[in-house]
Amino acid sequence: MSESPQLTYAQIDRTVLDTLRPPIGAYWLVIMVLILGVLLGVACWAYQIFIGIGAGGQNIPVAWGTYLINFVFWVGIAHSGTLISAILYLFRAGWRNPIARAAETMTVFAVSIAGLFPFIHLGRVWVVYYMLPYPNQRYLWPNFQSPLVFDMVAISTYLTVSTLFWYTGMLPDLALVRDRATGFRQKVFTVISLGWTGKHEQWRHYTRGYLFFAALATPLVVSVHSVVSWDFALGIVPGWHSTIFAPYFVAGAIHSGLAMVLTLMIPLRKLFHYERIVTMRILEAVAKTIIFTGLIVGYAYAVEYFLAWYSHNPVELEAFRWRALGDYSIEFWIMVVCNSIIPLLFFFKRIRTSIAWLFTISILINIGMWYERFVIIIGGVAHDFIPHAWGLYWPSGIEWGIMIGSFSLFFLFFVLFVKHLPSISMTEMKETLGEGGGHAH
Amino acid sequence: MPTDRQVLAVFADENQTVAAIEALKRSPWKLDRVHSPLPSHRIFAALKLKKSPVGWFTLVGGILGFFTGFGLAIYTASVWKLIVWGKPVIAWIPFVIVGFEFTILFSVFGNVLGLLIFGGLPDYKGLRQYDRRCSGEHFGIVASCTEEEQGKVIEFFQKQGGEARVFE
Q: Quick check: B51 pLDDT over 80?
């Protein structure tokens, strides 16, 4: 697929390298605001460490609050990066090339942010090493039959693999920046580009290695969110104990991640004048994929109700009745409308080719997906088997502060990234112009 | 006769580069390497490159990871036995998850290691005999020759449309 036949290699390089020029004042203002947000999060976390985990709103029966919601949310956001960089790569979808780098970067940062939440939720964060399988005097080891330990193994594997995938994919572009830079910047890029010179022998092994990366990342991404879903599905809590959780979570993760790709790419496209590279056809392709994932997510919501009805289990029936009509019904309907109804607007070409609509809907989906995790995580334990054990939860100010900090940290990383590293893969763009995408040999 | 000179010719497009590779293969001089800003299937075909052996490293990494994951889960369950009713201490089904994740992780480590070893990375010395335009929009072909022949090689590349320079 040749998106912009009029583009040349030189124009691609110039457009992307121009984004690495020293920033204007407004950039530093954005950085300052984001740093303030991060500091707010750090202050709230520090307060929680001194006061105790009770500073959050979690209590019996809802022991998993926004920390777990945000954990699952950020892991979900991370998923479309691998979908775009690995799965669409294997399918030779040329439209992925202009957005693959930003999506991969989003993955790395989102997994890093997600990985913070178990630390935050731990309370006594300094004993985090208990989770690691290390030899110790007491022969006390992590229990590898626990879904929480599965999760630690899966998330740390995902972070390592996605970071290596991201860095390896960036090597040729780092070399290009090195070759156009001067002074200290050139020295830095010389080191991090590992002396890449684009020799045919380097490309021969690189293309093969990249193909294996994609082939390995694809099952990994499916496994990671399946494992996250089992944190819940392996419990017997009504609303959690369901066999559809793994595919339901994977589809939801990709849904939210694609929405976040739009949320990030649309301003980036405008600010960095990427209109000729990230064309409307590419944004449209993302929107069409969102229709698909939105339909799967909507189907999963419906199937949950069907299973509750078909089971004739009064506890399940009550859990799902309460979900739609009970104390968290507003959150539930935000979830349903934002995730499975609003994305259907993308069926209309006029909407999926409008920047304003694309951006607005992407944010609504992000909100909806956050509430999906709220409904699942909070709703399940707040209203389980016996009325005696029911209870409500709402996040405390400390939790909101930490959440603002996590969003600020994510956007801070991303804003720093776009001004310091190539935010579009110049190599893959050149391939798109040449042979229709995909550089496996 | 020792070939102590390297002539690097820079070409503006892929077609010229592929034609120059074909011509160089018919000449008495040795083609040393080709630099390109992207992986070109046409250059790969002209050079008749074989499939990269990186996959063997990936495979070995995967096998090691599979046994490491299962081994770790089995060993830890054995030294700290959690007896819960009649459930097995060594439970194969949940250990598949640990085994799977380690398989992927170690495969990727093997893949990266293979890529670094076969790709000769890091290679900072290689930057001395390299034209910086080759990472952007140009292609480079390097031929080895003797000092006496370097003039002929330069002339050969110029006829092919390249801009040549010599490295010792």
A: yes
Picking from B51, B82, B97, the nearest residue to A150 by CB comes out as B97
Predicted confidence at residue B3, as pLDDT, reads 66
Looking at residue A436, what is its pLDDT? 39
Q: What is the mean pLDDT of chain A?
A: 91
CATH of segment(s) B5-51+135-167: 3.30.70.3450
Using CB atoms within 10 Å of the CB of residue B161, give its burial: 0 to 12 exposed, 13 to 18 middle, 19+ buried: middle
Residue ranges of B 80-139 with Cβ closer than 8 A to chain A: 80, 82, 91, 94-95, 97-98, 100-102, 104-105, 107-108, 111-112, 114-116, 118-127, 130, 132-137
Mean pLDDT of B42-68: 94
Residues contacting A166, CB < 8 A, separation 6+: A85, A104, A105, A107, A108
User: How high is the ipTM of this complex?
Assistant: 0.92
CA distance A243 to B17: 56
> Is A237 contained in some domain?
yes
Min CA distance, B148 vs chain A (Å)?
A: 26
Q: Is B124 close to A207, i.e. CB distance below 8 A?
A: no
User: What is the distance between the alpha carbons of residues B96 and A220, in angstroms, rounded to a whole number?
Assistant: 13
Q: Where are the domains of chain B?
A: 5-51+135-167, 54-118
pLDDT per residue as tens digits for the range B117-131: 999 989 998 888 888
Mutation target vs A (from B21, B83, B105; most A CBs, 10 A cutoff): B105
- For the stretch A367-391, pLDDT in tens is 999 999 999 999 999 998 889 989 9
Determine the Cα–Cα distance for residues A71 and A113; give it in Å rounded to an integer. 8
CATH number where A360 lies? 1.20.1630.10
